């Protein structure tokens, strides 16, 4: 996306297809060219335990940290 990304406790829903992900694996959700304004909700909606990672400039990634028992 071009420009700033503004979020307001936004939740990311992840539907991984094509097999089970590996623990610690990061998936790119989106990229943006401006500033990140606000923050994401720390809860990721998925069949896996995951966290939102914005530590890399202009990227939003989801990192798989485990399972949540609903596989």
Description of the structure:
The protein has 71 residues and is mainly beta. The protein has one domain. Helices cover 0% and strands 49% of the residues. The protein has strands at 5-6, 10-13, 26-31, 36-37, 40-45, 48-53, 59-67. The strands form 3 sheets. It has a 3-stranded antiparallel sheet with strand order 3-7-6, with no helix packed on it. The chain has a two-stranded parallel sheet with strand order 1-4. A two-stranded parallel ribbon has the order 2-5.
What is the secondary structure topology, with strand pairs?
Layout lengths: L4 E2 L3 E4 L12 E6 L4 E2 L2 E6 L2 E6 L5 E9 L4
Oligomer: single chain
C-alpha Rg (nearest Å): 13 Å
Broad structural category = mainly beta
Give the number of helices.
0
Q: Order the strands across the largest sheet as they lie in space.
A: 3-7-6
**How many angstroms separate the termini?**
32 Å
Which segments are poorly predicted (pLDDT under 50) over 5 or more consecutive residues? none
Topology as a string of helices (H) and strands (E): EEEEEEE
């Amino acid at each position: 996306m071009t420009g700033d990304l503004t979020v307001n406790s936004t939740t990311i829903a992840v539907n991984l297809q094509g097999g089970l992900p590996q623990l610690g694996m990061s998936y790119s959700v989106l990229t943006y060219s401006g500033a990140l304004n606000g923050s994401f909700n720390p809860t990721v909606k998925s069949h896996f335990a995951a966290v939102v990672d914005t530590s890399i400039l202009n990227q939003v990634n989801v990192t798989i940290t485990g399972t949540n028992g609903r596989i």
